[in-house]
Design a protein that fits this description.
With 226 residues, the protein is an all-alpha fold. The protein has 11 helices and no strands. Helix 10 runs antiparallel to helix 11. It is flat, with a radius of gyration of 20 Å. The two termini are 31 Å apart.
Length: 226
């Protein structure tokens, strides 16, 4: 019911039906508990990755040295395969839900940081000049002018963080992530194809619902701002 109401509030009847039917699928196939574990991983990881990406993106726009260094790091991180994140994390932090969360967050930081950089640098010059005319200092210019003006781009970056975090749900189960990813991996290892399909469809439905909700939120923010 909560998923249906949230979907209706953000995107109308179609999104409400999508959210409601997806939640119903999880309940009917007895996947609710595992789905909530996967969702809890996303809910905890996304704010950490988004906040870190925001800070690194802002730092890149304020320092050329930091920009050149972080740009190289982001290129390497985005070119690195998913599985390659698990090795160093397992060595330094061991196995369990927390190392899985750290690996997911590291994988999701670069898209957010790049969206922050793009958003800040595409703020219209007129908006910047208006901030200067209003007497804003550097801190006020960032938090009251540039970031609000780039809000829609930042929300798209948040959408990418959600998708990248959920994409690691199955792979992170190799180092201890619980939930649907772990169940899917176990089903594949046991050649239980039917259960594997059920878990895979559940992960896809969660990804679609979160993607549609964040996109609807971004569109709504843009409409309110206009």
């Amino acid at each position: 019911g909560g998923a249906t109401l949230l979907g209706h509030a953000l995107g109308g009847l179609r999104l409400a039906l999508l959210c409601g039917l997806s939640a119903l699928y999880l309940a009917v196939f007895n996947l609710w508990a595992d789905a909530m574990r996967t969702l809890s991983l996303v809910i905890i990881t996304v704010p950490l990755a988004a906040a870190t990406g925001l800070l690194l993106g802002v730092l890149s726009t304020r320092s050329r040295r930091a920009e050149s260094f972080l740009a190289a790091c982001f290129d390497v991180m985005q070119a690195t395969p998913h599985l390659a994140y698990l090795g160093p994390v397992a060595v330094f932090f061991g196995f369990g839900p927390v190392p899985a969360m750290i690996a997911s967050a590291l994988f999701a930081i670069p898209p957010m940081a790049r969206c922050v950089i793009l958003g800040i640098r595409t703020v219209p010059r007129e908006v910047i000049e208006a901030g200067h005319m209003a007497g804003c200092n550097r801190r006020q210019m960032l938090w009251r002018v540039e970031l609000p003006a780039a809000q829609q781009t930042l929300l798209l970056g948040l959408n990418q963080v959600v998708m990248q975090t959920l994409a690691m749900a199955v792979i992170a189960s190799l180092i201890g992530a619980t939930g649907l990813g772990h169940k899917l991996l176990f089903s594949l290892q046991q050649l239980q194809i039917g259960k594997a399909i059920e878990n895979g469809v559940a992960i896809v439905l969660i990804a679609i619902v979160l993607d549609r909700l964040t996109q609807a939120w971004a569109r709504r923010v843009g409409e309110v701002r206009h």
